Amino acid sequence: MSISKSQYLFIITAMLAVYYLAVGIYMNHLGYYNQESIFYIEKTKIIFEGLGNRIKVMGLTSPLLPFYCSIIFSSVSTFLAPVIASALGTAVLFYILASTLKTRIQHDDFYFYIFVALFFLHPGIIYVAASGKAIYLVLISFFLFFFNLLKFYRSNTTFHVSLASISLVILIFCDYKFVWLCLFFIPLVLAITLQSLNLGEKESIFRLFLSFNSPSLRRKLISKTFAIYIILFILPIASIISYKLLNLTHSNDLNYFIESPYATWNVLVDKLNYDITTAATNYQLPELSVLVSVRVIYFCPLILIAIYLFRESTYQALTILTPFAFIEFLHIKYDKLYITYEYYLIFLILSLLCLIFKALVVQNQKVFKIIVLVAALSTFYTGYSFLKGSFIHDEKAFITTLVSGEHNMDQIEIMDMAGYINTLPKNSHVLVDDAIAYPIAAFTNDIRRLTLPYQDLFLSAIETPYRYDDYILIATAKNPFTGYTQLNNKYIPAIRIVNSGVNYRRVHETNNWVLYKIISIQ
């Protein structure tokens, strides 16, 4: 019994999924967690195990779609849910890429084997699959967005623009920073519309001249440009406005989902990564703007091949170059943040997409395949070196733990404090601010014992803790996030003045946290 190509592809995808799950579970047993996955774990526990009104947590936790994907697998294991989601999601990414490749390049398996090798061995892809982060969703939606744009260029059918618009919405709700990608497509739409007009001239400048000097062509150009703008951007704009209004309704803040540490994990983590790096003795300057694009090319030499393949079409080449402008813009706008690994990986996915569309147009396939092979092999080294030398702690910790096989110690202090809370009497309650203490809340066995900010009684508990709780978790002066919570080292002296009849005693202490017991009311 012979195996069809579709069955063969499904088997490889299943093998990839099992492989990614094995690596992810192995990393989990070595104690590797990143802040994003821990944040999802804590919010999932609140939704399914918490007490009080959880609608705000359910609807405003950001990024929204990765959080929901993690929730789907929480029935299997709350702690492994983000890893399961990223492992299966990365396998789905491979299936989408490989099936698209097989549709377009049916009689040459060389490029398919390149794809398989990348997804099995590339350190960056393994990081995406086994870390529990939401990068897999970003890459899937990014691929689908550019894939449908390139399909539109070939077919001139606005159906593909509609699919690109839906993909853009998913992309934005996976990582809000991609909203800035729209800026660079606003001028590009005019070039796309010009190319779609049935004119004899090939050069864009002459096509524009002819269009503006002919009343009928001018009307057609304006109406078609406006139509593409509407189709491509109206859904993302409407989605963002609706979601911001939802935030305004439930939190009185339009930007709650991107600015509040209760809604998203990266508000404080990005600041911490920057502060740690700048305070280090071997401090390195952030990437210079001029060098970001150079670093992209060094990370993914395949992108040069992609640009070469689209060299004959100006507007298509500009489409491929748009992510370069986007990443440069991010570096300028968020000048105190480092470019994370996911923004380099989008160029790898874009390169593979370009190979799918244009690999067979090259006449000298033998030389071209050698160049592609060398470029693909070089990405294994650059993918590893970028992770190893990353300024982002979670990225560097992943590859260090994976290669060394040693237990990761990053969460030891957190687990120590959470472990002590788990040993407290069953009916005791602990006042916790999960703006910064969400890792401790995530590793607590019974989250119902915690008084958290999503609950209506939290503000009252801060003012008179002895009426609601038996213990208070305080951030010490050494805690890098101590300035972002009321429950810091200044809280106990202040509350002693307000509630003079209450005593507080330290019962457990680490470098960054102190647990106080409310011991008496006089």
TrEMBL record:
Signal peptide: none annotated. Keywords: Membrane, Transmembrane, Transmembrane helix. Coiled coil: none annotated. The keyword Transport does not apply. The chain crosses the membrane at residues 7-27, 65-98, 110-128, 134-150, 221-243, 288-310, 343-361, 367-387. The keyword Glycoprotein does not apply. This is Glycosyltransferase RgtA/B/C/D-like domain-containing protein. It comes from Mucilaginibacter ginsenosidivorax.
